[in-house]
Amino acid sequence: MSRTTKIIQVDAFTAEPFKGNPAAVCLLESEADEAWMQAVAREMNLSETAFPVKRGDGYELRWFTPASEVDLCGHATLGTAHALWEEGLLAPDEPARFYTKSGVLTAVRRGDWTEMDFPAKPEEKTEGPVGLAESLGARPVYVGRNEFDYIALFEDEAAVRDLRPDFPAMAALPVRGVIVTAPSDSARFDFVSRFFAPAVGVDEDPVTGSAHCCLAPFWGERFGKKEMVGYQASARGGLVRVRTAGDRVMIAGQAVTVLRGELLD
User: Fold this and answer.
1) Torsion, CA 162, CA 156, CA 213, CA 40, rounded to 10
2) Where are the domains of the chain?
3) How many CB atoms lie within 10 A of CB 16?
4) What is the pLDDT along the chain (265 residues), one digit of tens a residue?
5) Is there a catalytic annotation at residue 48?
């Protein structure tokens, strides 16, 4: 006999439907088989599908791209918290607590925004691998690396927006993805970024919370600021507020539900 599982699609890091980064949230009633979760993520064909299941005082949470499981995801965590509050599984003023492969993550409502407490993932300067500049189609002025990604700094926003990467070449690099960033031309934002992750099946991620675990300390050190606003300059676009706090980064964004349905298997 087949089971029915509620699934919700949330656009994260935006207050407008069809912008920001879409995530599917599959509300599990019990633990699910890993192969089944990967198949669902492939079926949803979004950058991430989240699978929360109740565990003690919170939820166990896993994230899958269409190609693989990932250890940290910001927009699908934001989407999951949003879905739990909207569905009445958490009270409006109750924090969301998630047990993940990157430790315990929390999310709280602050007005129309959700603020998540994530681990900082600072980078260290590196020479960069052979092929990085070629895969980007432009040479950055600085390259760093953290445990997940390369970060490539460019002189100005136009250089970031104009990039047209060679994704097959980039997929061969020994990392999850590549963060590209520059100071913002707009007084509304401190910095802009884009994120490419073809190695895990996502050529360009529209708005990437986990990349801001690196971007926040990266720009905080350069600007001498603890609180900043970033704009991820993908085609959909998204606004991310960040606040550094020691070895943690508070990442805030808005979210909107765009679809509710039932998954049949």
Assistant:
1) -10
2) 4-109+252-264, 124-246
3) 11
4) 467 999 999 999 999 999 999 999 999 999 999 999 999 999 999 999 999 999 999 999 999 999 999 999 999 999 999 999 999 999 999 999 999 999 999 999 999 999 999 999 999 999 888 899 999 999 999 999 999 999 999 999 999 999 999 999 999 999 999 999 999 999 999 999 999 999 999 999 999 999 999 999 999 999 999 999 999 999 999 999 999 999 999 999 999 999 999 999 8
5) yes
At 104, is the secondary structure helix, strand, or coil?
Answer: strand
Check if 4-109+252-264 and 124-246 are the same fold: yes
Query: Using CA atoms in the order 21, 94, 109, 31, what is the torsion angle rounded to 10 degrees?
Result: -10
Find the catalytic residue in 48, 123, 157, 204: 48
CATH number for the domain whose boundaries are 4-109+252-264? 3.10.310.10
Total-model pTM: 0.94
Fold of 124-246: Diaminopimelate Epimerase; Chain A, domain 1 (3.10.310)
State both tokens at 87: 């569905």
Taking a C-beta distance cutoff of 8 angstroms, is the pair 176, 70 a contact? yes
CA distance 83 to 255: 9
Spatial distance between the Cα atoms of 106 and 108, rounded to a whole number of angstroms: 7
